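Recap quiz, item 2
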Amino acid sequence: MNNPYLPIPVRLTKNFIETEDRLIHTFTLQFLKEEDENSFSYMPGQFVEICVFGKGEAPFGIASSPTESGFLKFSVAKVGVVTTALHAMQEGSILGVRGPMGNGSAVEKLKGKNLVIIGGGFAFTTLRSLITYILHPGHRGDFGELTVIYGARNPGLLLYKEELAEWEKRSDINLVCTIDVPCEGWNKRVGFVPTCTKEVAPCSDNTYAIVCGPPVMIKFTTPVLEELGFSPGQVFLSLENKMKCGIGMCGRCNVGGKYVCKDGPVFTKEELDRLPPEY
Amino acid sequence: MIIKKSELSSFLDKLTGQYQVLAPVKKGLEFYFQPISSGVQADLSYSNSVTAPKGILFPQSETLFNYDVQGETADMQECLDTGKKVIFGLRPCDAKSLVLLDKVFHGEKYQDPYYLSRRANTVLVGLGCGEPRGTCFCASLDGGPFGTEGLDLLLVDIGDKYVVEVVSEKGASFLTGASLPLAGKDDRAAAAKAKETAFQACTINLEGLKEKMDVNYDDPVWGFLHEKCLGCGACTYSCPTCHCFDILDEVKDSTGCRVRNWDACMFPLFTLHGSGHNPRPTGKERFRQRFMHKFKYFVDNYGAFACVGCGRCILNCPVNIDIRQVLADIKAGGDEK
Ligand SMILES: Cc1cc2nc3c(=O)[nH]c(=O)nc-3n(C[C@H](O)[C@H](O)[C@H](O)COP(=O)(O)OP(=O)(O)OC[C@H]3O[C@@H](n4cnc5c(N)ncnc54)[C@H](O)[C@@H]3O)c2cc1C
Ligand code: SF4
Ligand code: SF4
Ligand code: FES
């Protein structure tokens, strides 16, 4: 029997300070064994449990895309025991990952649609995976127009700045970055994500919205989408309930009868509207 | 087949050579399932054990694997328990609880090797309930004092002996070689009589409960049901169907182990996010979760109530919250209180 609790050993090859406040680091991990790398197949939106031996495990969305082979990437905010240990980790250290976990099926449903991807804060990680996947020459044709709205409190807190700059130059993606309050040296948009969404979101016809961010951003963005004519079935949300097992057994991450780890973490708003608001 | 009570301990003695035998053992005034080394330690004159025998297959604390991480290598040794066990004399309600846990631990996509390997290597010898306790209500949950769901063998007490009924193939092959005497006509009649006259101190009517819970998430009833509750978790730790757990590390130098411990939805930390946000912030939401999980979500996912009516949560609650009353209040709804 395959043991879902045993981590796959990986090496930390890069521990990169991602944000100016130094609270988010981006980690690059490589598999120790080639067979593990080959059998680890994932889709944007999925997550893993990262294990810091001696400290424990915690779930993180995969920030790399399956189109980038040879490594996995994660951006992690420092909040507690495991994340603090991760931040202090030396490059070259051995870690473990369990996964991929969660439903990676949402991408299939997005094919043939125009997309508006809306992200705030560090929840942008799995959206980076999705955007990178879509922009891959082998996949770009499967999707319609692509609009990305990404907000952070200030410019220093934006993740993946180099990539954002590259995406800004491309014609096959409309990237709109916004910060909460004006700041010196920032000549782009200022304002909260929901307001920005109202102004730049495309027409809802044949369009799906993918929203990923802190609960308060989600709370104020979904009504805006509704106003713009997006039906609950056209809006995808990713949840981040507290998790341990990641496989639907420890009973921790449920929203009503659904387990976020196993049945999610991506749900349509239509699905969530049928569940209690316990997220 | 029959086992004479006078020969029970020698029967168990023989088993202890081949299996780890776990049976009710009296400690003070209470009974606990414990490994026995000699048949005389077992005491079947009990109503039920304080803690559920669930803990034999899904221990309160267990090591999942040991590891040694040094430099470039990570060595991991999984700790699977494949020893042969017999749980002797468990009650039908507790056997039924294992059928419910099977559904959780044997998922479509993931299987839990720790629980399942113990389960596969364990023979369940049940003991019919002649005198259920006042807090028992198994018959209201598709079970009964002589229910056989989940069991391999069932013992029926007929005075000076037990009639042994074979329930599963595993039970039948367990008995081969035991050379027990066959049950006579009188024995079988006595067993049938014992079952017929078995009484249930209490029944509750669960008709319409699930339908009610499909729509009562916002019912005012949740506002007062939890008020007495301390959130101590005694109900969940004693429950044979609760399966929530935590996973953590224990370390010494480069070696360590990953451990899983029971956990409970009644604790605030259970769902607290890293950001400080908690989706079930107060006792109200947590109390509702416990009941919703057992009587709605589990039904939606697995087609059965996650309660076997053992009554342990009633006996162990420090503030006398009685699940039978809670369910009646839920059914009645908040408006009528
Ligand atoms: C599907 C999914 C995807 C996720 N993706 C990401 C991601 O891509 N990036 C990311 O950064 N996070 C992500 N998270 C969140 C991440 O899993 C948590 O931040 C992480 O589990 C925290 O683990 P920890 O051990 O560091 O915190 P813990 O130590 O477990 O902290 C847990 C709780 O304790 C509290 N706490 C910690 N220390 C103290 C203290 N000293 N005093 C009082 N309280 C304290 C914290 O506030 C927190 O509520 C994701 C979560 C999910 C479910
Ligand atoms: S909820 Fe109470 S009565 Fe039901 S199985 Fe659990 S402990 Fe027994
Ligand atoms: S045993 Fe009683 S007080 Fe303790 S958590 Fe359960 S219902 Fe609440
Ligand atoms: S994390 Fe254990 S059930 Fe979802």
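The first strand of chain A starts at residue 8 and ends at 17.
The mean pLDDT of chain A is 94.
End of item.
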